[in-house]
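Why do we bother with a discrete structure alphabet at all? Because it lets us treat a fold like text: something you can write down, compare, and reason about line by line. To make this less abstract, here is a complete entry for Putative transporter YybO. Read it the way you would read a sentence in a foreign language you are learning: slowly, and without expecting to understand everything at once.
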Amino acid sequence: MEERVGNVRWGIAGLLSLGIIVNYLDRVNISVALSPLEKELGLSNFETGLILSSFLWSYAILQLPVGAWLDRFGVRWLNRIGSIIWALATFMTGLVSGFGLILLSRILLGIGEAPVFPGASKATGYWFPIKERGLATSTFDAAAKFSSVIGAPLMAFVVAGHGWRAAFLVAGVINVVYAIIYWIAYRDPSESKALSEKEHRYIVEGGAQPEQVAPTNALANFGFLLRQPKVWGLSLGFAAYNYSFYLFLTWLPGYLQKSLHMSVLKSGWYTIVPWIVATITDIVIGGILVDALIRRGYDPTKVRKSIVTIGMLLGLAVIGAAFTTDAVVATIWISIAIGGLAFAAPVAWSIPSIIAPKGTVGSVGSIMNMLGNLSGIAAPIVAGLVIDKTNSFAANFLIAGAILVIGIFCFVFLLGRIEQIKSPEEIVQ
């Protein structure tokens, strides 16, 4: 039986997870409010796709500089500033009128939220030994799914009772509360007064990433990382996952409302079913099972790559939703797909803190997140175009399935062994 060393690190995991829930509440509210927003502004499906993806334009563009800033300046201050920006952007979305200003609000939201996921990955590398990295990562990754479980019905209730603008005002208040909590509570391990010496030693000796070890030449550092097949295998595989994830995140309520003719409120309740499944599989399989198998001596590379591959294969169940108009059957297929993709995601997010050369976790995470979110930009726009051209959502599920096949290939063959990449200095030595 392992000696108890304290649980401050798990409190940090909870804080990071709460931030992801708040972040994704800002992303799901636009999806739930879609129908009344479209009617008020008179939008086409293509314009709706632009609004749904616009958050990701600034979010994706900022990933590389954010990665360098995280490695240079640390997690705490970047996320503090970001939390203020994203709260203002959420309030702005509910107060402005017109297509252009809604678009601008979503772009501003992307700027504020850009550091959150790579920052959580980097903070997890600081705060957790490698043997706990799977569960620690799955807690914040599962929060992205759980946000839709609580966010979709909450926002649907607000929209149905008070109009689409109220959804953004409610989310804005929640954002402000979180910003205050984060400002007060987050510290790196070396700065934490609550962390005992015993727990700090347990974290460091377990393989945590060292703090304040950033390369001085960020441009050369990115150039080196972009020449590594491991970085490309991880990033392209994650991009394939993220295409399906954002297709569901942005268009699932709209699909239920448009194709299956549900009310806003009913679509909100149907939407939570796949996300409940995703939350459970994310933590149980992507976190607890992965850590348990590795602790029992199974090869870490085989465990992580097997879990990712199985999850992506289950994601192909999305194709089944293309061939039904029954709401229950469609929900079952989508739940299988999201459930599989969900437990692949935390494994992918745990990899930057394992393969990155010292001091570059933020940079590796940002490359992965940038490519992932470029595909996230494409997903809602392509979906809108497909619906405009075909008057149906079915082809979007087939496209998502084809992209997942490419992602599986990248994870299996390009990534290789999941181990730390040697820095240029280590290669020279």
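What the structure line is telling us, in plain words: The chain has a mean pLDDT of 83. The first helix runs from residue 8 to 32.
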